[in-house]
Amino acid sequence: MNVHGHRRQEINRAIKDQLERVAHTTLLGLTHPSAIELARRLIEIAPGELSRVFYSDTGAAAMEIALKMALQYWQQCNPPRPRKTKFFSLCNAYHGDTVGAMSVGGIDLFQRAYHQLLFPILQARGAYCYRCHLHASYPACRFACLDEVEQMIAEHADELAAVVMEPMVQGAAGMLVYPAGYTRAVWEIAKRHQVLFIVDEVATGFGKTGTMFACEHEGIEPDVMALGKGITGGYLPLAATLTTEQIYRAFLGTVEQQRTFYHGHTYTGNPLACAAALASLDLFEQDQTLQQLQPKIALLSKELERFKQLSLVGDIRQCGFMVGIELVQDKQTRLLFPGRERVAVRVTKEARRRGVIIRPLSDILVVMPPLSISEEELGMLLNVTYDSIVSILGSSLRTAAKP
Question: Which pLDDT score, from 0 to 100, does residue 142 have?
């Protein structure tokens, strides 16, 4: 979420300047210059043919809008295809905590208490290469796991409104990085069967994978894209759902036709948030953020190599500045630690004691530095993470050895 660091005067000044004009006006039949300019800028940098912007305030809302947009599109396209009302997503997916976003998610822990609220979807297992459910090895497997994905999409294409996917990496699932070409392959399957492709770039967008949007790595052109988190540089809540002209035009018509997209929030497109987002985009250009990021990604990759030598580090997954370090009880068998040991939680607490914030997801350590981090700070982050693993797991092993 934090892109350019804290207290950036350029973003502070943009917010203050906007305060001198107007702090808020709804977009319910209205607009304002910052929202117009930001939409134009987002379209300029967006992949493919995305040309229309719908604002909201959180990533979950952006995804909720994407789902509703896709569903309504098929009811109103020419000719209408009213049977296309279902969604396909991958197991372990996470798309937010609102009801629709949870429905297309795939992490039971987050959904268990709300199952009665959720609508049914179609799901297949994705590429979790470290724990492949087919016991195959990439690249020799040639994406064997895609067979189930294609079969399900092909069999249900007439009733599928959209395929929903986090491009390149499943974040909340534990930084599960797809092998090269996998995201594009799923997109091509969706295209082949005339199913819309929705990408959730809430976590992966705005440089986190090394490009402005993760889609760019494999030349993917989505029909709908959800954005959030880093859009304002981490300053204010803002999100956006982008779509194509073709989808937008399905919502045009006379009053009698009632083709309007009935979705709106009071704080949609808040002027202060839009001003912050515009300043953030300016900083991407001014600081050459993406260009400056490349050597830091290379350094991160190099420094992570020594983690692989630790006996209880099973797998390290990296996509740009998104890193997952999976801790295991046995490196050979890939045996997980008992949940009661809360190993990753203990490591993150030790790291915080040493002045570094990392996050646990089950037995996986999530390392996601701000893009503005210096190479020296990056070195400190990794040293503390490494030492915290050794401190906690070394202590655990000695304790376990006692009679």
Answer: 87
Residue 167 to residue 164: CA distance in whole angstroms: 9
Average pLDDT over every residue of 380-388: 97
Do the beta carbons of residue 182 and residue 170 sit within 8 Å? Answer: no
Query: Please, which residues have CB within 8 angstroms of residue 239's CB and are 6 or more apart in sequence?
Result: 55, 56, 57, 58, 59, 61, 62, 202, 226, 227, 228, 231
Domain boundaries of the chain, sorted by first residue:
9-286, 289-401
pLDDT digits (tens, 9 = 90+) for 266-314: 999 999 999 999 999 999 999 999 999 999 999 999 999 999 999 999 9
Provide the H-helix boundaries in 136-205.
146-155, 182-192
Q: Which residue has the tokens 């950036």?
A: 8
Give residue for tokens 């490494």: 386
Asked whether the beta carbons of 307 and 351 are under 8 A apart, the reply is no
289-401, what's its fold?
Aspartate Aminotransferase, domain 1 (3.90.1150)
Q: How many CB atoms lie within 10 A of CB 114?
A: 12
Token pair 């959030």 in the structure block, residue: 228
Those residues whose C-beta lies under 8 Å from the C-beta of residue 386, and which sit 6 or more positions away, are: 306, 307, 310
Q: How far apart are the first and last CA of the chain?
A: 46
104 half-sphere exposure, CB direction, 13 A CA radius: 27
Residue with tokens 């260009």: 291
CA dihedral 227, 205, 318, 111 (to 10 degrees): 0
Q: Which fold has domain 9-286?
A: Aspartate Aminotransferase; domain 2 (3.40.640)
**For residue 224, what are the contacts with CB-CB under 8 A and spacing of at least 6?**
66, 69, 70, 162, 196, 197, 198, 199, 241, 242, 243, 244, 247
Contacts 24+ apart (CB under 8 A), 71-76: 71/161, 72/250, 72/251, 72/261, 73/161, 73/196, 73/247, 73/250, 73/251, 74/161, 76/250, 76/251, 76/253, 76/259
Under DSSP, the state recorded for 232 is: G
